[in-house]
Structures are given as C-alpha cells and as structure tokens.
Amino acid sequence: MKIAAWNVNSLKVRLAHLLAWLEESGADVVCLQETKLEDANFPHAELAAVGFQSVCGGQKTYNGVALVSRYPLEDVQIGNPRFPDAQKRLIAATINGIRVISAYFPNGQAVGSDKYAYKLAWIAALNTWLREDLATRRELALCGDFNIAPEDRDVHDPVAWAGQILCSDPERAAFRALLALGLQDAFRLFPQAEKSFSWWDYRMASFQKNRGLRIDHILLSSPLANRAAAARIDASPRKWERPSDHAPVWVTLK
DNA sequence: ATGGCGCGCGCAGCGCGA
User: Fold this and answer.
1) Which bases along strand B come within 7 Å of a protein CB atom?
2) Which end of chain A is less congested by CB atoms within 10 angstroms, N or C?
3) Strand B: residues with CB below 7 A
4) Which residues neighbour A234 within 8 Å (Cβ) at sequence distance 6 or greater?
C-alpha cells in the first residue's frame, strides 16, 4: 500500500495534475491539503471515475483537506475534537485498518505574530488529540503539509532561515513533540539524497535552483513504521505546467 | 532592493501562502 501527501494549492486548478499523478505513481491513498474548495464543489465524481473514493473537509478560498483512496474510508472525522476551529485543516479516516490523517498545519506567517501563536496552539492541540488516539489505534499515519522544516538539513540555506518561520526552535520543538508520541518520520527511515525538499517558492526560480524546504511529511506510528518499505519525495510534478509549489511525498508499506 | 509568483475573489487590486 502506497500512501501519499500533497498540498495541491487549489484542487480546482490542479485536478488534472492529481489525476495524472494518481495514475503514474500507483498511490493507493493521497492526503490532500489546500484544496480551497467548498464541499459542494469537490470532484468526487472525477475521482470515482478512475477508481478512487474521497472524503473532504473544505471551505471557501482557504485551507481545505481531503482523503482520496482506492479502499473504503471508514470512521471519517473532520477537525480536532480538542480544538474547535473554523479553519478546515484536519480530516481522518480508517483505511484498511490504518488511521490516516490529512493535516494542513498553519503557516504561522511570522515568528511572534498572532498566526504564529495560533500555529503553536493548533499543534499542541493536535498532539493532545493524537496522544489519546494512539492509545487505541496501533497503526496511524499523520500526513500532510506541516509547515515545519524539522532540521537544518531540510533547508536549502539554514543560515538565512535560522529562527525564521517554518524553522524556528518552538516549531521544531513542536515537531519533535509529535515524534515523542512514538511517531517516526517516514522519509528518514531510509537513505535520502542530500538537499531533498518538498516545497519551492514560485518566485526567483527557486525550483530550478533547488532552493527549497522539506515541510511536507508522513509520520508513522511504530507498528506502521515497521511495515515501511520505502519513502520518497516525488519532485517531478513540480516541473509540470502550472504546478503546485509543493511536491507529493509518499511511503510504501509491506 | 521585502519585490519577485500564484491562488481566490471578482473584475481592481488585495490578502495570503511559505
């Protein structure tokens, strides 16, 4: 089973990319972020036509998450019961016995801003919720756009980014606190090329220069990490015409 | 040189992302 996460930056604009990538990647489950669609406009039919079921939690203009799967989606949960929030940033479902969560972490805008405080509070509440969930769910995957580069090696220019949004110590500590729940970064379970990133700014030819960050992640509970066979970032869709600024990331399970 | 690109909204130009 292959599970992926992809911030598509508007599913309306990127539906053709998603359909193409579903076919070429062989993914069984894709966790989407930034769909930017109200639920009434979600392309369930287009996905069903190529063999995928889908559930979504969306809103107008901003945010929006979804799960797309070849297998049935059970016990669907939108949002964090520990953090009532108008912003649609979390959706969970059980797929083949695995609890899969698509998460769009807040960006935070700037260290010290109101949005930064919201980001840290949101992650702390996610941590609380997951701690409770992991008590009863052995196999869990937290997938999505974390808006955190966990370590300096996940940043093209760690000196320039030091202490900045996406790289600040409190954000990285919040990421490590998720790992401390017993989750493991699927990407780092395997050898990877240096300077592997999942997001590149649209400006300044960042992708061509590989000036990116690794901020999209798949965290696996230990029983699931034991099943991991490979994990990668697929940068190829970033080369397509009108791409998302994020690349899909994936893990395969034995 | 704090802009630079791309999106939604909505029809000009702004807020936002990361």
Assistant:
1) 4-9, 16-18
2) C
3) A 7, 9-10, 12-13, 34, 36, 60-62, 106-107, 109-110, 115, 145, 147, 165-166, 199, 201-204, 213, 215, 242, 245-246
4) A21, A25, A247, A248, A249, A250
- Write the CA distances from A151 to A15, A125, A133, A198, A232, integer angstroms: 32, 22, 27, 14, 17
Give the 3-state secondary structure of residue A192.
coil
Which 3 state secondary structure label does DSSP give A46? helix
Residues of A with catalytic annotation? 104, 145
Distance A226 CA to B15 C1' (A): 43
User: What is the distance between the alpha carbons of residues A195 and A73, in angstroms, rounded to a whole number?
Assistant: 35
Q: Rounded to two decimals, what is the model's pTM?
A: 0.97
The pLDDT tens digits of the residues spanning A55-112 come to 999 999 999 999 999 999 999 999 999 999 999 999 999 999 999 999 999 999 999 9
Nearest to A147 by CA among A186, A192, A111, A191: A111
Q: Please state the φ and ψ torsions of residue A69, each to the nearest 5 degrees.
A: -150, 145
Rounded to whole angstroms, the distance from the CA of residue A197 to the C1' of nucleotide B1 is 27
| Residue A178: its H or E element | helix A169-179
